[in-house]
Amino acid sequence: MLTLASKLKRDDGGKTGRASGASDSAHRVSIRDRLLTKEVAELEANLPSTCKASFPDEDKLHHFQLAVSPDEGYYQSGRFQFEIDVPEAYNMVPPKVRCLTRIWHPNITETGEICLSLLREHSIDGTGWAPTRTLKDVVWGLNSLFTDLLNFDDPLNIDAAEHHLRDKVKFHLKPYANYLLFVGGIMLYSAERALLW
């Protein structure tokens, strides 16, 4: 984070010493990167206690990972990784988010697609993406998918929602089984698996 901020200062300070417009365009920092410098600082100051953001390359604030470790509900004690890519057209378009951890969730498919209204460019209910939203909103929204935004009535993963309707006890056990199976590396015997489905 500090690397990009210092780069912005260096670029702003060096503009007066440049003679040609061509060298200016080679050193321009995008609007997205300027916004992200401020938003990442705000995000780090207001990150939920159940979340941890990591930036593989501190010069690329537009690509990072978020780990969510819910402390309540069906997914308590799990750790779920999300990959967040912020497109060049940000903040006019929302970030692209994908869940890297295989999960049994009504609003997240097993392939990582996420149903969260604020990540939609156009939303019928008016709660979709708007240029006034920030990365903080995205992180808090992802965190809330495991608590108050867990939605069985409008699912993306219909099988998970129907499983919840059929048998809440087995549904409650399934996230732990998936977590152990795909993250913990523990292989369950087919008879044990059948009990969870």
TrEMBL record:
Q: Does the keyword Nucleotide-binding apply?
A: yes
- Which superkingdom heads the taxonomic lineage of this protein's source? Eukaryota
The reaction(s) this protein catalyses? [E1 NEDD8-activating enzyme]-S-[NEDD8 protein]-yl-L-cysteine + [E2 NEDD8-conjugating enzyme]-L-cysteine = [E1 NEDD8-activating enzyme]-L-cysteine + [E2 NEDD8-conjugating enzyme]-S-[NEDD8-protein]-yl-L-cysteine
- Is Cytoplasm among the key words of this record? no
- Please report a single Pfam family linked to this protein: UQ_con
Name the active site residues: C115 (glycyl thioester intermediate)
Q: Name one GO biological process term.
A: protein neddylation
Listed A to Z, the keywords are: ATP-binding, Nucleotide-binding, Transferase, Ubl conjugation pathway
The pathway to which it is assigned is: Protein modification; protein neddylation
Q: What is its EC number?
A: 2.3.2.34
Q: Where is this region: Disordered?
A: 1-26
Annotated ranges, domain UBC core = 31-184
Q: Which family does it belong to?
A: Belongs to the ubiquitin-conjugating enzyme family.
The protein in question is named E2 NEDD8-conjugating enzyme
Origin organism lineage: Eukaryota, Metazoa, Chordata, Craniata, Vertebrata
